[in-house]
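Records of this kind hold a single protein each, on a pair of labelled lines. Below, a sample record shows both lines together.
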Amino acid sequence: MFIEPQFGGKSRQERAGWIEVICGCMFSGKTEELIRRLNRAIIAKQKVEIFKPVIDNRYHDTNVVSHNENAIRSTPVNFANDILLLAGDSDVVGIDEAQFFDEAIVEVCNTLANQGKRVIVAGLDMDFEGKPFGPMPFLLAVAEFVTKVHAICAQTGELASFSYRLISNDNQVMLGELGQYEARSRKAFFDGMKDRKK
């Protein structure tokens, strides 16, 4: 169970910030958990800024929206460095779909944390081939807190940590929903990958 760290009443200039990463496969509740933590910060009257990559417009052009249709306002950005310009005097910075950003997202998160901010990042840790996805391994390495969430395997009903692509497309980046991807357990994922190569 994740125990949320707290600032402890110090001003941003006096406190140390940190990075939290929420990772897992598709349909595992990453965005749901990100929204939950950000809403709690808002309830605590902290200044919150939320960002997502501009390419993620599956459910809404600006809001971060979970597969369960929970939503929170956000600012879409083209590049990771845009976040530094827009984070302002926020206490908490939320970033969704971090795997779609370039490698600069790691330095951006470190800079924000070094400014005394709580940085909460959500993203896929592996791509559709089961390989580490974009900057996510580096974010996992520098984070103080890591939460890996799991889905339920669409094939076996077991815990799932892999995103299996159901349609033929070899691009690493392909925005998807139900019908294009499904969550799979290790065995079901690798069995499916073997079948695909036949």
User: Anything to note?
Assistant: The mean pLDDT is 88. The domain at 18-149 is CATH 3.40.50.300 (Rossmann fold). DSSP finds five helices and twelve strands in the chain. The helical segments are 30-43, 80-86, 104-114, 136-142, 186-197.
